[in-house]
Amino acid sequence: MNREQICIFVCGVLILFILAVLILAVLRRIRSKRKVRSMGMSEKIRKLNELAEPFGFQYLWEEDIFTSNIDAWQRKSGYETLYDRAAINANMVIDAWPVYFDYDGRTWLIEFWIGQYGINTGGEVGVYHAKNIVPPHLYKTAHYDAVKSMEMPHICCRLERKGAKVYEIYARHWWLTGFRMGTFSKPSELRMMTTLSFEDTAMAQAFFEGLQKSGRPRNRFRICGREVYVRMEPCQRYPLLRRIHRALVQFVNHIYCLLYRGVTRPFVQTADRMLFLYYQIPFCFRRMLRLADGRYRTKRRKRWREERFSRKEKRRDGMS
Questions:
Q1: Using N-to-C axis directions, what is the helix angle for 270-280 and 41-52, rounded to 10°?
Q2: Per residue in 83-92, pLDDT tens?
């Protein structure tokens, strides 16, 4: 065989291989659609919750969102400001409103987040406290533990996008979240209304005073007995480079949203889309459920660097 014949043969093999891959992909897509359509709604919810549980989430069919479990693995990690700084590296373009206050001999932190989490529009309310009183100048560097079950407030949370409801959920929780898959939003299009019911009026008053010190407009919150109402609307201003970075990440998020909706057509509901994606492209399904991993991976990397540095120091001490 001369060189020209070899090239023709190689091209033919490549074309046959590509055709075979395309045929297999089409057949897999058809089988995945049939499998999802053959499942009842209760079976879909059970299967989706079974798959989401290791990631710390569950699917709420009534609101068509994913929300965090009370016993989610993230509870052990608590909270540090580092998490928010690292969020954009995980394609999270979010605005945060931390509220610090002292109560019962400890510094508490209740933080609100809204924005775009990869291909998800969502919001969060987290409740944490330090082991003791933290001076204000150390607020940003302190570590806060997730509150115990008996310390959790009742939280009612409603997220709106362009004035329309995305979800409305109520629970006694330490980290109440809601994420709508495949919905793209700018943080400026979102608004979250939250009502927190505390164990007593003293704690509610302490939280309210923390809100007053947070620098947000006074018309965004109010108190009535043991209940405090908070309305979060983005009002943060960012430096030019940060705005450019956020815009670039949002562009990527928008592309991902379009791809997700295109790949999972003709399904409309999240349960159908996600199960179809699980049967069709399992890697993408797992990647999408890592809603908070970007923050916690940063802490794990930090711990790994600290442990590595400590081991090096010990070796040096042993050699000297």
A1: 60
A2: 888 889 889 9
